[in-house]
Amino acid sequence: MEQWLREHEAGAIALDAADDLRALRSRFRVPLAKDIGGRGDGECVYLVGNSLGLQPVATRAAMEAELDDWARLGVEAHFKGAHPWFSAHEEVRGMLSRVVGALPREVVAMNSLTTNLHLMMVSFYRPTRERYKIVIEDTAFPSDSYAVQSQVEFHAPRAGFDASRAVVRLKPREGEATLRTADVLETLDRERDSVALVMLGGVNYLTGQLLEIGEITSFARARGVVVGWDLAHAAGNIDLRLHDDGPDFAAWCSYKYLNSGPGSIAGAFVHERHLHAGAGLPRFAGWWGNDPKERFRMGPEFRPVESADAWQLSNPPIFALTPLRVSLELFDRATMPALREKSKRLTGLLERLIDERNARGPGKPVGVLTPREHGQRGCQLSLVLPGDARRAFSALQARGIVCDFREPNVVRAAPVPLYSSFHDVWRFVVALDDALEGGAAGGGT
Ligand SMILES: *Cc1c(COP(=O)(O)O)cnc(C)c1O
User: Fold this and answer.
1) CA of 404 to the centre of ligand 1 (A)
2) What is the CATH code for 63-333?
3) 370: buried, middle or exposed (CB in 10 Å: 19+, 13-18, 0-12)?
4) 51: CA distance to ligand 1 center in Å?
5) Taking the model in full, what pTM does it have?
């Protein structure tokens, strides 16, 4: 290891010692390096909370308690369980609303993310012959592209527009990796009469860019454009203010930064202004969107409850809601502003160490796709590796680093404030430097 890097270890340890949130790490199951293909006996450096968050220690007991309630009480657990199933989704509502900066009645935990995007578009994408376009990012997550394209094709024959021209993809300028807000606004202004919906990622999954949610939302709304946000990479990462920023809807998954387990239940936000009975939105309905007072009258008429629950179709999957509840309790304890503050410092350290490595040479520099300003990114940095990036990535894995690789040469690394330490960040940069200099055969752990 280079001497300058060795000298940074004490600083990282001191930052951990001074960190008020450091005890939260012990509330997570951090995989061991040797279990995931690395060397050494210690814990791995887990930098993929942007892909699948770690398991909270309390999740297992909470799941077992639900299994026990089912075994002991059967159907009676709907009302007599420790966390009655009848109102289980209501139990998470307050905590969920605090994570995304919404009013409690504006959020609901339901379905999966892509399903929720479709359900939201049923209500909020109502194209006409003249006004039919959907604006997304050119680097939108594939599922979002497919969802949007299929919505467009669903509506095009009846509304009478050309589906092949309906999706507008925002591209960065030549030679740039991320979008400029001014360019986003310029497109929205230019296309103002033909755009029906703008649906962007709050934090881009590939570049880590945080878009200016408030500014883009109010600009679009002032031009009569409906606004939805995909917050898959923002929920639990950014201190969102959905109610104040005022988009029409948003949706997110909970297995990334929200640590609720693979494929776990997603979330949706519908702004308060759409929740009153007369809002007149078309909606696909199911019995769990009915007013709970009416639900068990089992009548044929749908009376939507005046909350985001009106979009809920089915009785919720308890074995998916339970891990969400457990995880949200940790967010509630830590609070989003405190987590965001630590997150900025973790990612700031990662950036500084990489800059220093680049400045000292002699190796080729590591590039950073993610914007430099904290206001334009969350915890993730998307790094462009020089040379044989695949080989360097394998070398990182062998050293117990878990990050992810996107062809041809991008490594995404996301230190997460709930469980990543400053020392983890330091270990990552040591391993990265080693991997780039020494290749897969290099030593150390
Ligand atoms: C992770 C992610 C998805 C995944 O969708 P699922 O429906 O949960 O499988 C979709 N969109 C974005 C932007 C994502 O980051």
Assistant:
1) 16
2) 3.40.640.10
3) buried
4) 9
5) 0.96
